[in-house]
Each structure stands twice: as C-alpha cells, then as structure tokens.
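User: Please predict structures.

Assistant: First:
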Amino acid sequence: MLATPIPAISSSSSGPRPFNLSRDSRQVLGLMDISFGRIGAASGQRVLYDRLSISQANPLAGRLNIPSRGMVPGFVWEEDGKIVGNVTLLSSEIRGRYLIANVAVHPDYRRQGIARGLMNEAISHIQSLAGETVLLQVESNNEGAISLYDSFSFIKLGNMHQWQATGSRIRAIPDGSDFRDRIRPLSKHDFRAAFNLDCHSVHPDLNWPNPPPPDYYERGLFRRLTDFLNGRRHAAWVVETTSSAKQKRYLTGLVSITSDWGRPTWLRVRVDPRWQGHIERSLLSTALSQLKHTRSTNIRSNHPAGDEFVSQLLSQGNFNIRRTLTVMKLELLAKR
C-alpha cells in the first residue's frame, strides 16, 4: 500500500485537516523520518503501520476514511499541497482515555504555531467525544515540546527509560542475595496478586499505551492456546513473602518475559515499593539467565527512570538506554 504512487494534492489550502490514511500515509512517514530521527521515527511508524493494518482489514472504511467510534486517525497540517505537520490520535482500552502521538512539524515550518494548532484540533476532537483524559509521551530533553504541553495544562507523571539489548550479548548477573531461593515460577493462581503488584509498583498511566488489564498475568488453557497459535511466549517468576503479623503470604516481586513473533521481546520488572532495593537482583538474575539463550535480537524494557538500582542492574546485564520519555497527562474534565 505504501509503495503505490500517491497523486499530488492540488489544493493550495493552508492549515489543519483530518488525516486520511489512504492518501496521507506516505508523506507522514517521510515527515517522521525528518522530525524524529531513526529511533523516534521507528516508534511513530509502528503506530502508523498499526493504523494501516486496521484500514487494510476494512478497505471500505479506509478508502472512505470513516472514523471508528467517531475517532479520526489524527490531523495533518498542509501548506500548498505539502504535509508539514502531523498529530496521531489513538483511542484507549479505557473509556474516556485517549492518546496523542507523533506530534511532528517539518524543520522548515517550525515556530509558526503549527504544533499548537494541531494540538488544538486534537484536544477539541477528543472533547467532542466526551473524552476525560489525554496522555502523551515526549522525549525528556525536548524542552520546547514540554513547554508547549505545559501551556495546555498537561502535567508530568514521570520519566520512563526505554532499555534495549541483544540476546546474544546479555551478561548474566551474579546473585548472592538471600532471595535467590525464594524465586519461583508464577502459578496460575497468582494472576490477581501479580496484577495488583503491577498496579501498586508503577503508576498505571506510565504503562504505554495501556495499563495491564486484570487478566494480564492469567495463563489459563485458552490463553496458552491463543499464545501458541499467535507465536507468543510468556514466562514469569515471583518472590513471595510471609507477613510476620498475619502469617499471610503475598507477592513482593515479579519479573516477566513476553515475546511476539516478529516483534521485540519485552522484559518487565515490578517490585513492591517496600521491598525495592532488596529483591531486584534475584529477579533479574533469573530473567537474564533465560534471555541469554534467546534468539531474539531485540529485547526491550520500559522502567521508571528514577529507579537507580534497576538501572544499575540492567546496565550490568549489557542493556543500554534507547531513549527517555516523559509521560504527561491532561484532565479534560477539569477544563470544562
């Protein structure tokens, strides 16, 4: 689809308009390359390719640019037939929650109010859908963009490091702690406790693009079957602790590995705040010993940038920081 020549746009209009997937995709992909660089463009292109997959699955909707549930793919800014700005809109699995991505302006057209105009269009459209909250990610060192989002009353939720490694180059982390004998595989009865631990460990909105659903860690027969058919693999280990007061056992740490065919392998570390700095070494030692033998050439992990202990351990395991993103949130109800 992307390789098909796109007829030139003869309109001499200037300003924002809805993004047409079938007509605008090629120009927007080129704009991402220019605006974001290799790493940022790759992330933005993944979002756009997912959009394209939806439109290809429903060619009539894609051809007519019919919005899903009133949701347009985003907006572009056009100058004399040339797309010089873009903002992508994504619906969320949570009702009333929307995502803004790929806010890009061609370098030759910056500082002309284009990004602000696109943001106005995006937020106004989300408000028309009775949206309640808007989330976005921005490079943490992009002061200009953060200042723009501040002016729209977005607030910072936190910074997330995006780590990356190659399976063949991962280094094992020695574990001499007292917790190495407490590590066990996640059982089928643990999925609710694992979900609660995940939510308690990291703010749900820092999980991009969506927080984990309640059944994220459940691996029943049906889930295992669909994972097998879709080429997905999932493994998880936990640390369990007994409360001295009530003699009740509860999960204090979790590490999981998820891989999808043709996509990166993801490493996830979650630790109860009361136990941070104590059990991460055992968890990561277990996971990295497994990843060291994987054939995956692209292993990633998103983790809060403020967690210095996990950062040190990932560095020891030969992970490198790919980029650092600031997650920002706008409460639309407060603006009404």
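Second:
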Amino acid sequence: MGDGNGGDGNGVLLRTDGVVARITLNRPHSLNVLDAPMAQALADALGSIERAGAVKVLVLDGAGRSFMGGGDLNVFHADLERAPETASRLIELFHQSIRCIKRLPIPVIAGIHGPVAGGGVGLALACDLIIAAADTRLVPAYGRIGTSPDGGTSWSLTRLLGPRRAMEVLMIGEPIGADQLKTLGLVNRVVPPSELASATEALAKRLAAGPRVALANVKRLVQQAQTSSLEVHLEAERNGFVAAAATADFREGIAAFFAGRSPTFAD
C-alpha cells in the first residue's frame, strides 16, 4: 500500500493508503506467533488508528506462511515456573487488541491463510469480516498444551456456532479447513491463496467508499443485537438512523437515488 508509517522491528507493520489501513503481523519465520513485543506493537498500532480517527477501513493480515500461529510457546518454555505470570502479562496485552478491534467504529477485515492456531483464531474471529485463503486451517489447539482459550475465542465461537458446536470445536480441537469454515459461517469468503491480498484490498476499498456513520452504526447494532432485548434494539436502530440522517452522506445518498446515479460518500 501507499505511505508506510509503521516499522517491523516488533513484528508488526502498519501502512495506510488514504482512508484504508493495513496491519500486517510480521514474524514470518515463526508463523507470526505472539510474544510480548509483538503484542505491544499490535496494541499500539490499533491504538494509533483509534486515536487518529481518519481511517475508514482496517485490514489485518499476516506475512509468510500463516496469519498467526498462536502464542510464542518459547516464552513459557524458558521458565515454566513463572508461566502463570508470563501468561497473564501476555494475554492482557493481547486482549487490549481484541477490545480495540471490537471498539473501533470502522469495519475490520481479516485476511487469513495457512495454519491459524490458538490466539490467532481469536484474533481473526474478533474482526468484522474474514476472507480466507483456500489453504487456511483453523487449529484451536489449546487442549494440546493443557490450557483453555484466550483472545475471545470461546466468546466468538459460542455466538457464531452455538454452545454445543463451540464445545466440540474447542474440546476436540480438530483442524477446520477453509471450505468447512465457510459452511459454518466462520468466514465470509474463500479465495485462492494468490488472490488473498487483492481480495482483501478490493473489499476494503469497497467499504471505504461507503458512508462512515452508517457503517459504524451497523457494526454497533450487530454487536448489540446478541445481548439486547428487541425493545432496546429497536430504539438503538431508531437512534442510529436519525443520527445518520443528519450527515452529508445521507443527503448525498438521497440525492443520488433520485438522480439515478451511484452515491459518492465523503472520505
């Protein structure tokens, strides 16, 4: 993409091109597994996007052979006696990013490929839309190292699959291929590996051309729909529509409709 504004010293690249940003997990020689510097860099990159408020769409992807292979087990193996403290610090850093992705008032697209394990599953599922390369395999393999999920994995899977299917996925931990992920509704699209970057780019540009306030409302409403009552949700929908009706994008949308042309929304 265009003007880079982030380095890869801590395993994360942040690049922006107008109103589209791309965060790339960049520890390709280790399948982008998460250690503390990388977790901090990811949280910092997301925080900078949130604070700036200029980006309309964010793409999250991974360099090399995998989107993200989970946590870096070397950090635990180096001192097993202190594993609880190490895990607590690393997970708290990681969860800052999960919270930020959910909080961002913009669409967040994950472009995933290769083996996606452990926390990589939670990170992908935290995003609003997922495009998966055909070589993707989700591996929620927490049981293999004697622990339970983090990164919101159990939260996301339960809401997307229901409790019984989520229990099966997390307890048995068998890899899930791209086609099955699509069938289960865990990803939106499956594309050939060679087309993953262009597919995420095309979707990002399409969303970036959309109305900012309306898309933010959609994200908020869909998130709230899983926990709010119908009455509360109807009021939230009314408030969202009314707020959008006060924007220049709404006026442009109405004008374009009656003129028989495509709308041009603001950046």
